Amino acid sequence: MDNIKICVIGLGYVGLPLARLFSTKYPTIGFDMNQSRVDDLNAGYDVTLEVSNDLLKNAIDNYGFRCTTDIDEIRDCNFYVVAVPTPVDNNNRSDLKPLWGASETVGKVIKPGDIVVYESTVYPGVTEEECLPVIERVSGLKFNEDFFAGYSPERINPGDKLHTVEKIKKVTSGSTPEIADVIDKVYNSVLINGTHKAPSIKVAEASKIIENSQRDVNIAFMNELAKIFNAMGIDTKDVIEAASSKWNFIKLSPGLVGGHCISVDPYYLIQKAQVYGVLPRIMSAARRLNDGMGAYVANQTIKLMNKKGILVKDAKILILGITFKENCPDIRNTKVVDIYYTLAEYTSNITIFDLWADIAHVKEEYGIDIVKDDLNKFAGKYDVVIHAVAHKDFEVMDIRSLLADPKNGVVYDVKSTLNKNQIDGRL
Ligand SMILES: NC(=O)c1ccc[n+]([C@@H]2O[C@H](COP(=O)([O-])OP(=O)(O)OC[C@H]3O[C@@H](n4cnc5c(N)ncnc54)[C@H](O)[C@@H]3O)[C@@H](O)[C@H]2O)c1
Questions:
Q1: Whole-angstrom distance, CA of residue 88 vs CA of residue 131
Q2: How many other C-beta atoms can be found within 10 angstroms of the C-beta atom of residue 226?
Q3: pLDDT at 290
Q4: 3-class SS at 172?
Q5: Contact 197, 251 (CB under 8 A)
Q6: Prediction pTM value
Q7: Span 40-51, mean pLDDT?
Q8: Which of 71, 154, 168, 325 is the best mutation target for the ligand 1 pocket, counting ligand atoms within 8 Å of the beta carbon and taking the most?
Q9: 30 lines ligand 1 (CB under 6 A)
């Protein structure tokens, strides 16, 4: 395929870094339905902090990268990449509306000979059974005769400045062997560590969903162990350190499992498995267990307060961090809110401090007011401090100095990254 012109549809945590990278090699335009996101990006600012202002401005000034909400501006592209969200609804069923919407957009602009590649995380079959029929219907073109498709899942990890998009080895696939080669070549041309070409679109889809489901199940096992060892009065982190001295022990830590990926993707596979009469018991149990960890942390903290004679109804509680993981502003499906909501049944004196999260966004999503300030101003004010997210800005703080009474207050370390002698309990 000559003269490739790329359009990336959906400019979030996944789409923007990829579009920026493609722009260094091919004419590339970003398309998103959110006008304010597009305005920010064209001004050189990425609110997700995945692409630095310098890198974004460099792409705009030196490679002609730009973003749009106008469908007419993407008509002359011939290689469409779709990276829109794949959430679940309130019943944890797949919500394919963004994918259908993006496929309609592609259907309106796709021409004979063009290629569309899906990046969104889905259960095996979504690309061919849910997306491509929409493109066929809207465009009037025939899949694999007039236009072609592929699937290449993203492995980006929000906030991770080590495994950036160009360094991640990527799985690719295509709807014919020739198209798989073209797609593989395009991705290979911008990736430092190359690609793994999967034999089919369904294999590529399945590979992504098991990467995240495997993590969910393994973390659930660690969370189960943490519950057992906490009940027995044994420190889980010490146990994991000891077990990790064996060559084939998989070292993971217990914790809250939130975000747009690991806490969501397994539901897609669970749903599809049931269509085939398979009830995935391990994945379902892992999801239930991980979803209950916020309430568990709150209840563990209440037990520690009780031991120290702190009355929950009068206690002043500080929760450090609300994002779903450290050093990034992403609050999607954060389980810190479960800690908050559980404690809020007993006391209204709860403050959440987070320099990374957006105050208005948190209010809109969860109805919670958070604070951003100089953390030193909060010193000496609290009965309880919960270290919920290990943002780097908390490392410099003497955590016990936040307590009104450092001897009789409670510090609970969800992430188990604080010094053991600074805390009263941890997962
Ligand atoms: N965030 C991650 O770490 C990560 C990692 C790997 C894979 N994924 C997968 O990648 C996909 C995208 O995730 P994300 O985190 O980038 O999402 P996101 O919410 O950060 O961004 C999605 C963007 O798509 C836009 N959008 C939604 N519907 C649209 C439509 N119909 N047309 C045009 N634009 C539309 C939104 O406005 C938004 O800017 C998901 O399937 C996710 O599971 C995410």
A1: 17
A2: 26
A3: 98
A4: strand
A5: no
A6: 0.94
A7: 96
A8: 154
A9: no
